[in-house]
Amino acid sequence: KSDDWDLFGAAIETTDRISHMMWRLIDTRHPMYDEALAAKYGDSIEKVYRRADDFVGRLRQKVPKDAVFMVMSDHGFHSFRREVNLNTWLVQNGYMVVKGASTEKTLQDLFGRGKFFEGVDWSRTKAYAVGLGQIYFNLRGREGQGIVSAGEEYRALQDEIRSKLLPLTDPETGERVFSDIYKRDDIYEGEYIQFAPDLQVGFLDGYRVGWQDTLGTIRRAVIENNNRKWSGDHCATATEISHGVFFCNRRIAKAEPHIMDLAPSVLKVLEAPIPSDYDGEPLW
Length: 284
Hints:
The protein is α+β, with helices and mostly antiparallel strands and 284 residues long. It is built from 8 helices and 10 strands. The strands form 3 sheets. Strands 2, 7, 8 and 9 form a 4-stranded mixed beta sheet that branches. The protein has a 4-stranded antiparallel beta sheet with strand order 3-4-6-5. Strand 3 and strand 4 (134-137) form a beta hairpin. 25% of the residues are buried.
């Protein structure tokens, strides 16, 4: 109202929170689907989006008519019906060697700097998974006890694991789990690429990396039910099936705008310099 601003940004988080928790009530195939709860709260996600839409409309009425006005999503959403334990698959296929049982981890371990990957024999382990769909190689010079050499051995291991993991199917449904598995140098670039995952999985709808697998725990099964209320997600989902939305009151010059284009577009409107290392480009 004071009209003394050059850039105004508003982030609506509730659409994310409600989708994470209530997706189970719009997906009848989800293990946590409850018909009675769905009848009562199944429209909760739509209600939140309607309120967000109303908020955008009221905000649009407040800003000057000549202001550039953009509305965008920063990610999509998919059902999270089944957990996929990448470390378990690596153990079963001989890429990781462990001794003894693996203990479950909590966020307290993560934030309290707990011990992880206990019992892993790094002298015989070529790959491990940590985080949300990232597979790292036990690389010489990068890992403390690395055994995989850069160059030909590295590229051969990428091809081998990708070719074996990509056809993985769900034993319960027969559905494929991955849309693609991406190699590091095909999707990353820049001065810190050596710290990027060596493979990044791209899940199809219904699948996400397992809760315990994110922290390196070895589970008994590669694929199991997600029995938590956190039933929708957008972590490591294949980009090919996860499109966002973008609205703008100024005509843009690109037929397919990308999320990377938003920052340089804003800087151009503000007549500010655009850093040379930006990946995107202005939309006009």
